[in-house]
User: What shape does this take?
Amino acid sequence: MTEAPDAPGFVTQRGSFRAAHVADQNIERQAFILDQMAGRPAVRTLKSWALDQLKPKAGETAVDVGSGTGEDVVAFAAAGAHAIGVEPSPGLRAEAVRRTAGADVEYVEGQAESLPFNDESVDVLRCERVLQHVDDPAAVVKEMTRVLRPGGRIALIDTDWATAIVHPADPGVLQRMVDHFIHESANPYSGRRLRGLLAGAGLMITGETAATMIEPQEGARQGLVGMLHLTSLQAGVITEAEAEEFARTLAEAADRGAFHMSLTMYAVSAVKPRAA
Ligand SMILES: C[S@@+](CC[C@H](N)C(=O)[O-])C[C@H]1O[C@@H](n2cnc3c(N)ncnc32)[C@H](O)[C@@H]1O
Assistant: This one.
């Protein structure tokens, strides 16, 4: 089993993917988490669904907002588009540059709240698992709409943390952990809001789908469960004894092949109407 790199910056700072927290980030840990997620079939399904909806073409400008390690920027470039990743974290930008050397891609510093593009200059835009980290997702989607050309395509992907299931665990303890996680998140119910955000910005919805991520058995000891466990313990919403019991119960279940954790993610695509 691969262990997550030790990362106090990640586990003590719930909002470590937030743009405001770039100074506290542990890039090795973040890249590890992003790689784990990128390997999950549900995430692969949604990435591929979004690319299919967006259909970037040669000569088009295609932007990934919150581009992380750069995988989706490379996919845009492979389709022949002028591919640009917007990423506020210098460490993740450097990691993306390192990983995607040789690909015809560009990474720019920027935030979803204020995109570094002129009005109506972008043909294709995607944004995956970023809106959950922003304080004003409606303003962000409006900003994305500003930079899209009329006829331009957009796809948003995000998690809805109310769909998280962890089993087996003491229901009261688990509830406190999930409640804390949701309370600390900027936009924990992002998944269910994607459609309304796009429609509210005047865009025409072209598709929507969802996929449920199921953690493998080793997920009982790391990844999302580890994050939930440690943030709850450090915030004092569970006691040391409850944390130990939670970890022990899940590890024992995983040894029997009986651990379950799942989380549903949603994706919605839209087009910016051409002026009548
Ligand atoms: C969970 S990661 C997802 C990365 C990538 N989209 C993927 O699918 O692997 C969230 C990303 O959003 C970036 N991010 C956080 N706040 C942002 C903001 N306000 N504007 C743009 N990107 C942001 C983070 O630095 C990180 O790269």
The domain at 14-271 is CATH 3.40.50.150 (Rossmann fold). The first strand starts at residue 61 and ends at 65.
